[in-house]
């Protein structure tokens, strides 16, 4: 029924559109040879729309997604390089799983829109080049490492690939401000989802009242919120305040030690919570690495594997410990 409605309205829209696009072809345009549609700008006109159509087009879809992902299989917190890589690997290998990504910023990418000191290029040590090949990006090979000409090229490419997968939803401008936990019959605690709010609301709990959050249940939560900052290292810090996890602050810079440590130690740091990327440095006191991103990508890949290894067991517990 829904798709029939869509088809009819598309046909109507096309009919309207053709009225507005009659005689739009401009033979004199200098870009005519390189683009398909070249318009006559004097007669150019968009198809008509009523403002409420725009509102409904957005809100109906958003609320449908809120409803669908209130019970997610996996929640990824943070859409930086580690979080988006993890989402890509997970969603591609398990199209049956519902994966929600929660990002506190409006824009995705975290610290990966630029390289160090806000320079453009992105350096990745091998073997992270394998993943870059998989997503089809060009790079310069410098022997032991590769260079992508702009970090933004990596992050926008991986983001477009993740968002085009049907089993992923990105909720951006939304912060995780707490975790859902469950206690088993034997008394052990496990993470069982996230507590969310609009980021702007999360930032104003001290000066506004009555701003209760929303929740998403999940069998596994993967935290990729980066190193410490206003919002960074969120899940590690939250569990530490409850005495559920020990927090050790990020160590000094050592690229060689840091990258291997982050990738190798990517793990389930607390039942139900997998930690990846620079957030791990706040857990393990591993060294900071500065602007080299191979470890973020490999940690994201490793986190996807860890999450799938524990998924069935956590899903079983989720049923039992309602
Ligand atoms: C200016 C600059 C400084 C850098 N400093 C360092 C450094 O000191 N040490 C180092 O090793 N590398 C540093 N880097 C390199 C690089 O940025 C990071 O190592 C890398 O970005 C970490 O990747 P990540 O995916 O783990 O986290 P990030 O890229 O930081 O991504 C984390 C994402 O999680 C989101 N997030 C955080 N909290 C929440 C929450 N509660 N709810 C929802 N979303 C949340 C953030 O908005 C962000 O998008 C720096 C880079 C730049 C450009």
Key traits:
binds flavin-adenine dinucleotide, 39% helix, alpha/beta, FAD/NAD(P)-binding domain, three-stranded antiparallel β-sheet, 11 strands, 322 residues, eight-stranded mixed β-sheet
- What hetero molecules are in the model? flavin-adenine dinucleotide
Beta-strand percentage? Answer: 15-25%
Q: At the fourth CATH level, what is the homologous superfamily?
A: FAD/NAD(P)-binding domain
Q: Find the count of extended strands (DSSP E, 2+ residues).
A: 11
Number of helices: 10
CATH topology: FAD/NAD(P)-binding domain
Oligomer: single chain
CATH architecture designation: 3-Layer(bba) Sandwich
Which spans have pLDDT < 50 for at least 5 consecutive residues?
Answer: 1-8
The average pLDDT value, as a whole number, equals 90
Cα-based radius of gyration, to the nearest Å = 23 Å
InterPro entries: FAD/NAD-bd_sf, Sti35, Thi4_fam
Catalytic activity: [ADP-thiazole synthase]-L-cysteine + glycine + NAD(+) = [ADP-thiazole synthase]-dehydroalanine + ADP-5-ethyl-4-methylthiazole-2-carboxylate + nicotinamide + 3 H2O + 2 H(+)
Cofactor: Fe cation
Subcellular location: Cytoplasm; Nucleus
Secondary structure: elements and pairs:
Elements: H1 2-21, H2 51-69, E1 71-77, H3 81-93, E2 99-103, E3 122-125, H4 129-134, E4 140-141, E5 145-148, H5 151-163, E6 168-172, E7 174-183, E8 189-198, H6 199-202, E9 214-223, H7 234-241, H8 255-264, E10 267-270, E11 273-275, H9 279-284, H10 294-320
Parallel strand pairs: 1-2, 1-9, 2-6, 9-11
Antiparallel strand pairs: 3-5, 4-5, 7-8, 8-9, 10-11
The chain binds flavin-adenine dinucleotide.
Family: Belongs to the THI4 family.
Keywords: Cytoplasm, Iron, Metal-binding, NAD, Nucleus, Thiamine biosynthesis, Transferase
Binding site for substrate: 82, 103-104, 111, 176, 212, 227, 278, 288-290
């Amino acid at each position: 029924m829904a798709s029939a409605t869509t088809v009819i309205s598309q046909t109507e829209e096309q009919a309207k559109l053709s009225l507005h696009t009659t005689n739009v072809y401009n033979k004199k345009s200098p870009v005519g040879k390189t683009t398909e549609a070249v318009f006559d700008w004097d007669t150019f006109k968009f198809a008509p729309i009523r403002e409420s159509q725009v509102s409904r087009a957005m809100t109906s879809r958003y609320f449908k997604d809120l409803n669908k992902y209130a019970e997610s299989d996996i929640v990824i917190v943070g859409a930086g390089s580690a979080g988006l890589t993890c989402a890509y690997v997970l969603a591609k290998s398990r199209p049956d799983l519902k994966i929600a990504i929660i990002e506190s910023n409006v824009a995705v990418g975290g610290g990966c829109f630029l390289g160090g000191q806000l320079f453009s290029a992105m350096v990745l040590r091998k073997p992270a080049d394998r993943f870059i090949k998989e997503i089809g990006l060009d790079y310069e090979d410098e022997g032991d490492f590769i260079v992508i000409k702009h970090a933004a090229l990596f992050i926008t490419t991986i983001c477009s690939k993740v968002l085009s997968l049907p089993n992923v939803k990105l909720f951006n401008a939304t912060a995780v401000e707490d975790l859902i936990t469950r206690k088993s019959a034997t008394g052990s605690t496990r993470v069982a989802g996230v507590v969310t709010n609009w980021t702007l609301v999360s930032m104003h709990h001290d000066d506004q009242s009555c701003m209760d959050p929303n929740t998403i249940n999940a069998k596994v939560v993967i935290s990729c919120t980066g190193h410490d900052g206003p919002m960074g290292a969120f899940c590690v810090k939250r569990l530490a305040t409850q005495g559920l996890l020990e927090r050790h602050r990020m160590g000094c810079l050592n690229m060689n030690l840091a990258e291997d440590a982050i990738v190798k130690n990517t793990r389930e740091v607390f039942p139900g919570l997998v930690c990846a990327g620079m957030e791990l440095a706040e857990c393990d006191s591993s060294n900071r690495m500065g602007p080299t991103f191979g470890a973020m990508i490999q940690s994201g890949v490793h986190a996807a594997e860890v999450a799938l290894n524990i998924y069935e067991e956590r899903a079983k517990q989720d049923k039992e410990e309602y």
